[in-house]
């Protein structure tokens, strides 16, 4: 069970999912090599065991990076487990790429590291309840 964050081209002026026009067509995020370079720059500890699937082990958290097969990369996902320290690393990677992400469970539906606390805590509480004996 993971806290999932979905990365794609999102209009810069959108303050919530509701602000994205119905006719908006996301553009590619960049060439696979550029996306991989940005991820590796922000998270040098990332290990890609397959070209489309990587993992990052941090202090009290882990993140799986699911890039998929597309080149250029159209979208990808982070699957966060453990503590909230991973949220800050995700924010660093997004900043390195100059992109935004969706975060289901948040009020806006968008990933905003300074506003993720409540949604992440809800997920963590549910996760701990489900996984504890």
Q: What about the largest sheet?
A: 6 strands, antiparallel
Instruction: Estimate the mean pLDDT confidence.
Output: 85
Strand order of the largest sheet: 2-3-4-5-1-6
End-to-end distance? 15 Å
CATH class: Alpha Beta
CATH topology type: TATA-Binding Protein
> What is the count of DSSP helices, taking H or I runs of 4+ residues?
3
Structural class label? alpha+beta
CATH architecture call: 2-Layer Sandwich
Write down how many β-strands occur, each being a DSSP E stretch of 2 or more residues.
6
| Radius of gyration computed on alpha carbons | 15 Å
| Topology as a string of helices (H) and strands (E) | EHEEEEHEH
Q: How many discrete structural domains?
A: 1
Approximate helicity band: 25-40%
Parts with pLDDT < 50 across at least 5 consecutive residues = 121-131
* Overall 3D form: globular
SSE arrangement:
Layout: E1 3-8, H1 32-42, E2 47-50, E3 53-58, E4 61-66, E5 75-82, H2 85-97, E6 100-102, H3 117-131
Antiparallel strand pairs: 1-5, 1-6, 2-3, 3-4, 4-5
Helix pairs in contact: 1-2
Give keywords.
alpha+beta; TATA-Binding Protein; 133 residues; 29% helix; six-stranded antiparallel β-sheet; 3 helices; disordered C terminus
What does this entry look like structurally?
With about 130 residues, the chain is α+β, with helices and mostly antiparallel strands. The protein has one domain (about 5-130): 2-Layer Sandwich (TATA-Binding Protein), CATH 3.30.310. Helix content is about 30%, strand content about 25%. It is built from 3 helices and 6 strands. A 6-stranded antiparallel β-sheet has the order 2-3-4-5-1-6. The longest helix is centred in the C-terminal third of the chain and has 15 residues, at about 115-130. The two termini are about 15 Å apart.
């Amino acid at each position: 069970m993971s806290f999932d964050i979905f990365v794609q081209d999102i209009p810069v002026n959108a303050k919530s999912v509701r602000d994205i026009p119905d006719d908006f067509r996301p553009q590619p995020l960049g060439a696979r090599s550029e996306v991989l370079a940005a991820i590796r720059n922000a998270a040098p500890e990332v290990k890609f065991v397959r070209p489309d699937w990587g993992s990052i082990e941090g202090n009290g958290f882990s993140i799986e990076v699911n890039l998929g097969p597309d080149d250029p990369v159209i979208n990808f996902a982070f699957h966060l487990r453990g503590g909230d320290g991973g949220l800050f690393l995700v924010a660093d990677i997004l900043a390195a790429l100059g992109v935004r992400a969706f975060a289901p469970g948040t009020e806006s539906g968008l990933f905003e590291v300074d506003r993720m606390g409540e949604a992440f805590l809800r997920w963590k509480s549910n996760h701990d309840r489900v996984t504890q004996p």
